[in-house]
Amino acid sequence: MIEIFQNIREIYDFRKPVEDLAHFVEFFSESSPSGFDQYFAKGHSQSGMFASWTPTFYINLGTPYRIQLDKVFHHIGATDDILILRNGQVTRHILPTDLIFTVKFYPGGLEAVLGISQTKLDHKVIPLGQVLPPSLLMKMKQPITFTERVLIIQEYLLLQRAKRAKKDHYLKIVNDAIGEYHTTGMQLNTSQVAERLFLTSKSINRYFSKVIGLPPKAYFSILRTRAALTAFIQTRETFDPWDYGYYDLSHFSKDVIKLTGQRLSDTL
């Protein structure tokens, strides 16, 4: 099962963060036993995710599993908790015994909350005990509800964020640039976004490389392709590539292949 092409969200329960974390954390999630029934009934055995440059915690509450970053397999033990960047394709092999709690950050969110630059995480599987206190992880692994786990991790993240509230100058600029790109329908190039923020192209490239780990042009391309592909899957008959700045369907298709390794024909 590949994200966007199919709905991999059906095997998780989700919670949004509180307002004070909403700019940094996209969501909290936990494996959904009821979702697994539908998942395996459809013949799926793995979930594939594209590059998004979103740091993600995986706290293992269940049994061992395997995760593949690009073409490298990693065995995650029953007591192992990890942090990955998702700067390449990620495939997790699903088992009925899975029980995993995840925290997905927006690009730059990990640094804003915990002071950890995501630019150092490329293609790495980081033991989460190097990032979070062992006592916190022990609390998360107790036989409690999903909602209780969200409250525990959220309280910790809020406390850490409060210590760093005045240290996110670069992140604010990057978030403002992403906001401008979204607001204008993903039609602007990097120079035009920089001009709207009274920045030079050199400056905006430096800020994106510092916060996210890649240039704005590359990141904007990921955003545009993901948004356009989602719209294509949902409204295939009325989809217009022009709405996302593509010249034609062929132009759009090339970006889809670049991001996902899949062709539009694979969605049929």
From TrEMBL:
Q: Which GO terms describe its molecular function?
A: DNA-binding transcription factor activity; sequence-specific DNA binding
Q: Where is the HTH araC/xylS-type domain?
A: 168-268
| Listed Gene3D superfamilies | Homeodomain-like (1.10.10.60)
The organism's superkingdom is given as Bacteria
Q: Which InterPro entries match?
A: HTH_AraC (IPR018060)
Its recorded name reads Transcriptional regulator, AraC family
